[in-house]
Amino acid sequence: MMFEIPPPPLPRDGALFYRPPEVELCDDAARNGDLKMVKELVQQLLHSPRPSSETLKPHPGWLYSSITTAIERHDLDMVQFLLDENVTTQDAFLPFEDAVRCRAFEVLELFLQRGSDINKPLHRNEPPVLSIPLCTGDKEMVIWLLDRGADPNARCAWDYTPTSQAMLGAPLDFIDYLFTRGADARRGELLQYAVLRDTPDALDVVRRAVEHGAPVNKVKYEDEPKVFREREPFGLGTPLHRAAEFGRVEIVKYLLKQGADPLKLDNRGKKPRYWADIKGHPAVGIALIHAEDQWSKMRPKEMSNL
User: Repeat ANK: residue ranges (predicted)?
Assistant: First the structure.
């Protein structure tokens, strides 16, 4: 028997945000794992005549919260039913993100079978879903995603990749593993993020990036004019600029040994030492003064050989 719901009066204000009672009831049924009730409510909402008081045509997307609830419960049958009802479109990505966070492997398999792009950025300034388990320490999910085509170098609009995210917070063994699975230190501005890592192993992560070929003297986004223009107001420099700004004295010393140029200017015309000074990092400033002196002595010799 069809589940009967008396039609409520349509609110005078906020009609665009009005949702029929079936929407909330469907979410409740999904939360209770009641697939039969979900099917009845979907039938009544989407496929049966609606009360004349409703001015908005019911939309499958109104039931989006029901599919995320089903994902949280790892309810594959309910997820499949709601997908068949077009609750989410093929190119929508949030369900994939939810499934990764909930470790719903069987749901993820279903999404991949239906053509979901495992390497699509979560948002314009967020990398794809591989970045999630890298930060939560879920190595099983990391391996699962990589085995199914996740690219550690897949970027968002700002050249921010899962490996970039790993530089900031993933365990060191995860980072080592990524490099065995194709992570490219020349992509994703890895060194820019490694120098910002605020953990005891930060220097080890910086070493990994440099040893795998991350450019030491590259100004962030210097080879991407569009992104450079967009991010320029926030300040763009080399990894040495950022390490100096944040007072990472051991990282600064290491970068200098690897050939980082203490005289190179950022997009605001400032040397790394400027940022160390205004941020109150005297030990970094001293190291940079000595490095500037050495580089200043070398430069005339280099010019004379041209």
Answer: 238-267
CA 25 – CA 77 distance, rounded (Å): 18
Least Cα distance to 160 among 140, 138, 188, 136 occurs for: 188
Rounded CA-CA distance 212/225 in Å is 25
Q: What share of the chain is helix, strand, coil (3-state, %, to 5)?
A: 55, 0, 45
Length of the chain measured in residues: 306
Check residue 123 and report its DSSP letter. B
Q: Taking the domains of the chain in order of start, what are their residue ranges?
A: 21-49+57-98
In degrees rounded to 5, what are phi and psi of residue 244? -65, -45
Tell me the sheet residues that pair with 123.
126
Looking at residue 145, its amino acid is: L
35: helix, strand or coil: helix
pTM here? 0.85
Burial class (CB in 10 A: 0-12, 13-18, 19+), 280: exposed
Walk along the chain (306 residues) and give the pLDDT tens digit of each residue: 444 444 444 444 444 467 889 999 999 999 999 999 999 999 999 998 877 676 678 888 899 999 999 999 999 999 999 999 988 865 555 689 999 999 999 999 999 998 889 999 999 899 999 999 999 999 999 999 999 999 999 999 999 999 999 999 999 999 999 999 999 999 999 999 999 999 999 999 999 999 999 999 999 999 999 999 999 999 999 999 999 999 999 999 999 999 999 999 999 999 999 999 999 999 999 999 999 999 998 876 554 433
Helices within the chain (DSSP H only): 21-31, 35-46, 64-72, 76-84, 94-101, 105-113, 131-136, 139-147, 162-169, 172-180, 190-194, 202-211, 225-231, 239-245, 249-257, 272-278, 282-304
Q: Is 188 left (phi over 0), alpha (psi -120 to 50) or beta?
A: left
Query: Two tokens at 213?
Result: 């070929």
